[in-house]
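thread: overnight batch results

M.L. [08:02]
morning all. the overnight job finished for the chain we discussed friday. pasting input first so we're all looking at the same thing
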Amino acid sequence: MEELLEKFDIVPNNINIFEIAFVHGSYSTSHDLEYDYERLEFLGDSVLNLIVSDYIFNKCPKLEEGNLTKIRANYVCQSALIYYSKQLGLDKHIKVNDEEHNITHNEILSISADIFESFLGAIYIDQGMNKAREYLANNIFQYIDENKIFFYDYKSVVKEYGDATEVNVDYETVEEYGVPHDKTFVIRILVDGEPCGQGKGKNKKEAEQLAAQQAIQKLHIN
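M.L. [08:03]
and the structure it wrote out:
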């Protein structure tokens, strides 16, 4: 942990908060711990949205609310967070018990997105808002400046396919769990009544997009 913090020029006031940021619930349960990263993830999500919103608000003074929202969504979506986490090496520090809890590869990817937010939440608590902003400025803002695309509208592609082939495209909720402020949704996509993909996300829209992405691959839609 010391090496990771040094990488980001962080001198911790309380290193324990950074340790907690990487503890998944499966690891917590297996080791009889009273904490995991979920509270920090909740906080980090808000900090991320605020700082990214502030940056694009000032960077794009002529854009209206709708376009600003679309731009922000691209840089705070799960795909973006997974990318950040891997690029920064945060995913290598995840503490998870995948053997006892049958955690899949896709769930590990989701966890890597979570810990990007929980680590940011830990930075905010331990170092303050200015350090959190500096961390994102040094590691995330470059992708905004490059107009890097993380989010693709897979649902629209499948809808166009459905319209062209005259088949119905529907989404159904398979599972919904978590506390009200931090829910997880599992959504299945049905194409002509047949299951063609399933996605999991922090909201229904994100889960639907992931399900649609799987459907595109399964149906070989260009």
